[in-house]
Queue: 3 jobs
Job 1
Amino acid sequence: MNTALLRSPYLDPAVEVLLAQASLPRRALFLDRDGVINVNHGYVHTPERTDWLPGIFELVVQAHVAGWLPIVVTNQAGIGRGYYDEAAFLDYTAWVHAQFAQRGAPLLATYWCPHHPEHGLGDYKVMCPCRKPAAGMLLAAMARFALDPARSLLLGDKPGDVEAASAAGVRGQLVTVANGDPLPTLPV
Ligand SMILES: [Mg+2]
Ligand SMILES: [Zn+2]
């Protein structure tokens, strides 16, 4: 895979502690962001526009306690479209991680793709191997953190999320929390 376009993930300040706590083989709970973590108001990138989806903190607490490593994988074409820049995205992501950590639900890392094949401006207009439904973000996370795809799970709200999971050998599950469906209970 050509990973030249892949951005470095945002790593939680506690990443080394979290990795040391997770027994091998490690498993990830991959989470799409908009529509799974927060309500998808469209290109959310500020605390003011963030509405958490019901049950998400409880789910991540459960994952953390059971030894899953929660990792966000998010397409961020709003950057490529020029709605906000990479620095603003990373500031916001640090705030999101802090919100989770404060609730005993630490996120390990956030992987993100700023590109869009049609609507990206300048260098952002590219068919990127990291943009879901491609598997680049998941593959990079699995290589970096020695994750076992067969023991990992992805939750997403769009078919493209599940496609990305399948392409990485990870089980993907569609959740539609915004429609009032509860988040799933994790298999132990
Ligand atoms: Mg989504
Ligand atoms: Zn990309």
Note: Residues 111 and 164 are 13 Å apart (CA to CA).
Job 2
Amino acid sequence: MDFDFSPEEDAFRARVQSFLDAHLPSEFDARDPDFLKQWNRALGEAGWLGFAWPKEAGGGGATIIEQFILKEEMSARRAPPLGSDFMGLTWVGPALIEHGSDEQKQQFLPELLAGESCWCTGYSEPGAGSDLASLSTRAERDGDDYVVNGQKIWTTLAHVAKYIFMLVRTESSSRYGGITCVLIPMDSPGIEIQPIPNLSGEVSFNQVFFKDVRVPVASRLGKEGEGWRVVVGALANERSGISEATEKLRHIEDLEELARKVMRGGRPAVEDPEVRRKLASFRTRIAAMRLTGMRHLTNQLQGRRPSSETSINKLLRGQLEIEMDAFAMGLLGTQAQTQGRWQYLSLSYHGTVIGGGTPNIQRNIIAERILGLPKD
Ligand SMILES: Cc1cc2nc3c(=O)[nH]c(=O)nc-3n(C[C@H](O)[C@H](O)[C@H](O)COP(=O)(O)OP(=O)(O)OC[C@H]3O[C@@H](n4cnc5c(N)ncnc54)[C@H](O)[C@@H]3O)c2cc1C
């Protein structure tokens, strides 16, 4: 593993910095839809959505290292992440590039690259979460269509998404081989969406019901019965996206700032050796996450597919977030009641830890697929 950037990569970093100087206001509201629309358009025009996708797919053909630099610089300025269509860009697009027909690529990729689509992901069901292969939403063939019946749950952004990237059961006798991936417009007749408010009162996920929803067979991604293959790659991409260490660097900076402001025994909390030790341990773990992320990048540069290794950072990040937030709440003491931001984070991280697969499932993956330990 080489930790140095080449002169070309340093020049690219400077280019990104100039773009940010020109397009990112010094103050902005990352939840303002008008600002996000404008920001997405600027990123799309600069060719930075799907920047590392192959040129034939309409992407920038950039190296994965350039993509990493782009994300690092964006995060350093606290810019909203690359595009608001996080799922579309992180796993639906790459899955389309790998498994999609020419028609599907032409239909979906340009919209994605222009920052104009929004995807949601339909894996989980009331009886199928960690054990995803138990899913039972059925798709039965009827002429040139599938007819879909069943229910998905915890579907993030289903209430605003244009399309769903979804797993259905096309055959019941084979657990893995009976699963197929389909791409469905969310305004298809027969789809009903019921939002589920989360712990902090916001709506981010939903229940989605499918009643006799007709889906053209041409909307299937990959072959019938090969949905599991599609989803394994998509999940590795999801976990790698979730695990970005750069974002955690902003989180620790905020925590350090808090420790400078909060007083303990008449002195800033940051002067307490216990507090300093804790902050240093968080920084060390973030540095370890960054190095693990670099190893994942190196693998990709050497042409290997996203692997189970992405589960390491997914696990580390979840534990770190909960601990950092609990530490912030401890520093604030009774003031925590009035510090909306930290309180909000403490309510939302529990969900982030579960989304994309629970910590136990990441431990199982690391034990079985990386360490080669037996299943029982
Ligand atoms: C914020 C958030 C966003 C989400 N977004 C989406 C989305 O967009 N699309 C989507 O399809 N799903 C989404 N999910 C669902 C998520 O993928 C599931 O919640 C997750 O996979 C766990 O499934 P479950 O809730 O059914 O829990 P279960 O699978 O029932 O797990 C319950 C508990 O049992 C443990 N457990 C289960 N099996 C094992 C095992 N083999 N070994 C050890 N322990 C085990 C788990 O770790 C957990 O602690 C989201 C969830 C959250 C919280």
Note: The first helix runs from residue 7 to 23.
Job 3
Amino acid sequence: MKKIAILRCMNVSNRCTGSGCLKAWNGRDRAFSGYAEEDQLISFFHCNGCDCDPATDEGMQKKLNRLQKNGITVVHTGDCTVRDKESGLRCPKINEIVQLLQERGIETVHGTHHK
Ligand code: SF4
């Protein structure tokens, strides 16, 4: 069984209910089409903002530790983490978090419900 988390943008979370991501997950649609019924969405978390240094931020370290402790195998980055829709360039803070996740052996996949 795979354990999944979704990482999204803190700024966007001020105005987003997350229903696009969750609808895609529940229907095993779009970026989630390869998952089995038994796979579980365990976590839905956000970055700690544009001023945060993910590598040293205490709160982010706690989140990463918790994800690892909970056996998360794959983290999907939300479509809201793309800054430039034309080029597909992701927010640099999100890229740093992705790097930290990968260093902990957690697979990362870009995208949720736009794919
Ligand atoms: S760091 Fe990036 S993902 Fe996080 S709130 Fe700022 S723009 Fe959004």
Note: Residues 3-110 form a domain with the Rossmann fold fold (CATH 3.40.50).
